[in-house]
Design a protein that fits this description.
- With 295 residues, the protein is an alpha+beta fold.
- 36% of the residues lie in helices and 18% in strands.
- The protein has eight helices and ten strands.
- The strands form three sheets. The chain has a five-stranded mixed β-sheet with strand order 3-2-1-5-8, with no helix packed on it.
- Strand 6 and strand 7 form a beta hairpin.
- The longest helix has 30 residues.
- It is elongated, with a radius of gyration of 29 Å.
- It binds dinuclear copper ion.
Length: 295
């Protein structure tokens, strides 16, 4: 299309410039006015029509290839939500956690090189759009409707992507990081991701973890290895190893300070943006028990 467009550009603009110079009004030559030229008018109607029809046919053929998700080596369910992407890896044994669930990730998508990967898209709230420009096409994730596309990377590496449908105030931060591994590397990555996820999925802190992930906490906070990927508040991945919370105002980090903080953040730091969700004592207790394992 680009080559054809260049040819058209050169012919049309070349002709325009040539005619402008050659037939201009100047000493010794009078510019002429005339109207109508059946052959030329036919030419510049018929040629573009044929070109547009040809491009349509070619595009539809390519669209079939782009939409053909058959023969994919694996399928990842990708769910958009304000404002992150949840990656659900296939329900295969190699992605299975000790509690019987399957590996999930947020924002980062790990795939092997040279494999056609089928991406099934869904959305929890509003329309988002999945796009990793260097790897493949763009597709909307629409609530209540299944859409899909496929991607394939020819070289290992890290590729940046971005939600491409305005979806609210966090839209610009709704990034996608696609990490493409060599086959060996991919096995290693799965192992370490499973170890990390199993640690976070410890049954002893299950209630607290599930409360945290179900509450609006995830909109602001990140805990690597979980679906919490908010960017507004501090990253809690290693909160239990931190010396203080609330921007240094509250220390040390222990059961007592965390409990008081979640119960009423403003009581400890009046200017904090963290809302008081009026959680029950039990909920706060469970969440704190879980946070204390994030070393
Ligand atoms: Cu999601 Cu923009």
């Amino acid at each position: 299309m680009f080559v054809a467009a260049i040819v058209v550009l050169v012919l049309v603009d070349g002709g325009l410039i040539y005619a402008g110079i050659k037939f201009r009004d100047r000493p010794g030559h009078t510019a002429q006015q005339f109207h109508g030229h059946n052959f030329l008018e036919l030419l510049w109607t018929v040629v573009p029509t044929i070109m547009v029809i040809s491009f349509s046919v070619l595009s539809f053929q390519k669209l079939n290839v782009m939409n053909d998700t058959s023969g994919a080596g694996m399928t990842v369910n990708v769910q958009g939500q304000q404002w992150t992407w949840i990656m659900n890896y296939p329900k295969e044994d190699r992605f299975k956690l000790t509690d019987g669930t399957f590996l999930q990730g947020a924002q980062e998508l790990h795939i092997p090189v040279n494999m056609k990967v089928h991406i099934q898209l869904s959305s929890k709230d509003v329309i988002h759009s999945f796009w990793v420009p260097n790897i493949g096409g763009k597709k909307d994730a629409v609530p209540g409707r299944a859409t899909d596309l496929w991607i394939q990377a020819d070289r290992p590496g890290t590729y940046k992507g971005q939600c491409f449908e305005f979806c609210g105030t966090g839209h610009a931060d709704m990034l996608i990081t696609l990490i493409v591994h060599t086959p060996d590397d991919y096995g290693t990555w799965i192992k370490s991701a499973l170890t990390e996820a199993n640690r976070l999925n410890d049954p002893a802190t299950k209630t607290g973890r599930e409360s945290f992930l179900a509450l609006p906490c995830t909109g602001c906070h990140t805990v690597l290895g979980t679906t919490a990927a908010g960017k507004v508040g501090p990253d809690l991945t290693h909160i239990a190893s931190k010396k203080s919370i609330a921007g240094g105002l509250v220390s040390p980090v222990n059961e007592d300070t965390l409990t008081r903080w979640i119960h009423d953040p403003q009581a400890l730091k009046p200017t904090t943006q963290m809302p008081n969700y009026h959680l029950s004592d039990q909920q706060v207790h469970d969440i704190v028990q879980w946070l204390l394992t994030l070393k």
